[in-house]
Design brief:
This protein has two domains: 258 residues, L-amino peptidase D-ALA esterase/amidase (4-Layer Sandwich), CATH 3.60.70; 126 residues, Ubiquitin-like (UB roll) (Roll). The chain contains eleven helices and 16 strands.
Length: 401
C-alpha cells in the first residue's frame, strides 16, 4: 500500500493484553488535516467512542488517533473514563497539541479496562518511534483477525495524483451498523470536514453497513477518515462536482474492498457469501433483506453444510416485512444465478443433473445468492456475510481465556 502524504502510523507492543505482538497504534496527522468519524449506534458505546464523538464536535483539526487492542473499555465506568482522560492528556502533552485534537479507539473484551500504566509507559517511546507501514499498523489493532486488511486506490483531481488508502479489522460481532470493527481511511486530498463526513457516511452505508457475520452489534465500532490536505488541487465545494467524482468513486472502492475482506475473515468462517437483492423498492430495503438473510443462523448453518435450503432464505426475507411480490420473486445460487431453486411463487423442480451441479457448487468456499423481490427494475443491492461453523463456537467460547 502506498504512503499517504501527511499521515504517519506508529506501532508498539505495550503488553496491556498481548505479549508477543504490537497492540498500540498511533496515527499522526499533519497540521491542517481534517477528520471525520462514523461510530456504533449502540446504547452501550465504549468510553473512547463517546470521547471521540465529543472531540469531533468540538474541532475538526485532529492531530492524533490512538488505538489499543485487547480491551474494549466498554461499560467500564469511572475506571474506563480515567483511562480515556489520562491517555488523551498524556499524548496531547507529548505531541504539543490540544486534548480535542486526540481521538481514541479501543477493541477487545467488553468490560475490561485497558492497562493504563502499561499504555502510559509506552507513549513516549511510541511518539518517538519511527513510522511504520500500513500492514504493521493493521496488525497492531487486530484481535481475532487471521490476516491484516488493507486497500488502496490512486486517482486524480484535475490531473493531481491523489492516494486513498485504508486498513480495517474485524472479524466477529459484525452486523448491520458496523461491527467489532475499526477502520482508518486516509486521503491526501484537501477536503473540508463536512464534505469528508458526508463522503464517509455515504460510503459506510453501502459497504461496512452491508456486512453481517453473526448479527451482533459491537460497542466499539469506529471508522475514521482523514484528509491530510497534502495535495494542492482544485477546491472541492460539493461531492456532486465533476472534480469530486473520481475521488468519491475511489473512496467507495477502498471501503468496499475492506468490507469484503472483513466478511471473508469472519470468525470461524468456512464460506464467504455474496448476496444480491434485486427488485427492491429502495436501496435501504434491499440491504435490509440481504442482511436479514445473512444474519439468520438457520441460513448460515445450511450454507456451512452445503445445503441449498431456499426455504430458510424465504423465511429470512419474510420476517423483514419488506414487501415481496412472491408470484414474481425468485431465489438462485451461483455467480450467474444459474441454479434457480424458486421462481414465480413455487419451487423449481430440478433435473438430476441440475441437482448434482448445485450440490457441487454448494461445496465452494465462495457462495453467491441472488434474490429477486419482483417489485422494481432498480439496480441490485450487494451485501456480504459468511456461514456459521463449529470453529465460530470454539473461538467465541474461549475468547476471554
Amino acid at each position: 500500500m502506498p504512503r499517504v502524504a501527511g499521515i504517519e502510523t506508529r506501532a508498539l507492543a505495550c503488553g496491556a493484553r498481548y505479549h508477543d505482538r504490537d497492540d498500540l497504534l498511533l496515527v499522526s496527522l499533519a497540521t491542517g488535516s481534517t477528520c471525520a468519524g462514523v461510530f456504533t449506534p449502540s446504547s452501550a458505546a465504549a468510553a473512547p467512542v463517546l470521547w471521540s464523538q465529543r472531540a469531533l464536535r468540538k474541532t475538526t483539526q485532529t492531530r492524533a488517533i490512538l488505538i489499543n487492542a485487547g480491551q474494549a473499555n466498554a461499560l467500564t465506568g469511572v475506571a474506563g473514563e480515567k483511562v480515556v482522560a489520562q491517555t488523551r492528556d498524556r499524548l496531547a502533552g507529548l505531541m504539543g497539541i490540544e486534548q480535542e485534537q486526540v481521538l481514541l479507539a479501543s477493541t477487545g473484551v467488553i468490560g475490561e479496562v485497558p492497562d493504563l500504566a502499561a499504555i502510559e509507559a509506552c507513549l513516549p517511546r511510541l511518539v518517538a518511534s519511527s513510522a511504520c507501514d500500513w500492514q504493521r499498523a493493521a496488525r497492531a489493532f487486530a484481535t481475532t483477525d487471521s490476516f491484516p486488511k488493507g486497500a488502496s486506490e490512486t486517482t486524480a483531481i484535475d490531473g493531481v495524483p491523489i492516494v486513498v488508502a485504508g486498513i480495517a479489522k474485524g472479524a466477529g460481532m459484525i452486523a448491520p451498523d458496523m461491527a467489532t470493527m475499526l477502520a482508518l481511511i486516509g486521503v491526501d486530498a484537501t477536503l473540508p470536514a463536512p464534505l469528508l463526513q458526508e463522503l464517509l457516511r455515504t460510503a459506510v452505508a453501502r459497504t461496512f453497513n452491508a456486512v453481517s457475520i453473526d448479527g451482533d452489534m459491537s460497542t466499539n465500532d469506529t471508522v475514521f477518515a482523514i484528509a491530510s490536505g497534502a495535495k494542492d488541487h482544485h477546491p472541492i465545494g460539493s461531492l456532486c462536482e465533476r472534480h469530486a467524482e473520481a475521488l468519491t468513486a475511489a473512496f467507495a472502492r477502498v471501503l468496499r474492498s475492506l468490507a469484503r475482506q472483513i466478511a471473508m475473515d469472519g470468525e470461524g468462517i468456512g464460506k464467504f457469501v455474496t448476496l444480491w437483492t434485486k427488485g427492491a423498492r429502495s436501496e435501504e430495503e434491499g440491504r435490509r433483506v440481504g442482511k436479514s438473510v445473512l444474519s439468520s443462523p438457520l441460513v448460515k448453518v445450511a450454507l456451512a453444510y452445503g445445503d441449498a435450503n431456499w426455504g430458510r432464505i424465504a423465511m429470512a426475507i419474510g420476517k423483514t416485512e419488506v414487501p415481496v411480490r412472491w408470484e414474481q420473486a425468485s431465489i438462485a445460487f451461483g455467480e450467474r444465478a444459474e441454479h434457480v431453486v424458486f421462481a414465480k411463487g413455487e419451487p423449481v423442480a430440478p433435473s438430476p443433473a441440475a441437482t448434482a451441479a448445485l450440490a457441487h457448487a454448494m461445496q465452494d468456499r465462495r457462495i453467491t445468492i441472488t434474490i429477486d423481490l419482483g417489485l422494481s427494475d432498480a439496480a441490485p443491492v450487494e451485501t456480504w456475510g459468511c456461514d456459521l461453523t463449529h470453529e465460530y463456537l470454539r473461538l467465541n467460547g474461549d475468547y476471554r481465556s
